[in-house]
Amino acid sequence: MANYSPQHFEPRAKAVNVKGVANRAVATVLTAGLIVQPLMSPLAAIAAPSTDNGDSVQGGGSSVENTVAAGNQAVVKTAAQLAEESAKQLKDAQAAYDAAQKKADAAGQSQKQAQQQKNQASQAVSDNEIEQNAAEVAALQEKIDELKAAVEKTEQQQKKLGDLNDQLEQANKSVEDKTQALKDAKAKQDEAKKALDDAQAKLEAMGMDEYETAKKAVEDAQAKLDDANKAVATAQANLDQAKAAEASAQQEKKDTETALTSAQAKKQETAAALAAATTARDNAQQKFDQAQAALDAATSGTGIDLNALEAAKVTAASELTTAQAALDAATTADATAQANLQAAQTTVTAAQEKANAANAAVASAKSAYDAANKEYNAAASERDAAKAAYEKAQQTEADKKTAYDKLVEVRKQKRSEWETACAESDIAKKAYDTANAEVEKLNQQIADLKSNMTVDQNVISQGMFGFMNYIIGGSQFTATQKKNAQDAVSMLTGADDKAEWYDQYVDQDMSRDTNPLSLEQMRNALTYLDTQNNLRKANGQSALSVSLRMTVAAALNASYSSNIWRHSGCYWDNGENLAGGGGAYTGGETEDTLGWPYTGLYTQEKVNYENWIKKYGADSEAGKALMAHRYDSYYIYQNYRDVYSGTKDENGKERGDGCGHYLNIIDSATVAIGIATGSGKNTDSEVTAFDYSDDDTQADFTVSEFKKLVNDYIDSAYNAGGTQAQKAQLKELQSKLAEAQKTLGTADTAYLAALNNQKDAQDAYTAADTNVNTAKGEYEKAKSGTAAAKTAYDAAEAKLKGIDVKTPKTKLDAAKGEAATAQATLDKANATLADSKTKAADAAAHKAKARSARDAAKAKSDQANEAYDNATASVKDLTAKCDAAKTDLANKQGTLDDAKKADDAAQAGVDKARAADTHAATALSDAKQAVAAKAQAVSDAQAKAKAAEGELATANKAFERFAGAQKAVDDAKAAYDAAVAGVADAQKQLEAANEAVVDANFEIVKAKAELASDEALKADLEAVDHKASLAAGTTGNEKLVKLNAAYARYKAAVDAAAGLKAALSDADAKLSDANDASAAALAELNDAKDALAAAQAEYDKYHPKAEPQTKLQAKPQVTQAAAKAPVAKKQAAPAALAQTGDDSALAGEVFVIGGITLVAAGVTLGDRRRKQM
Question: 3-class DSSP state for residue 31?
Answer without folding.
Answer: helix
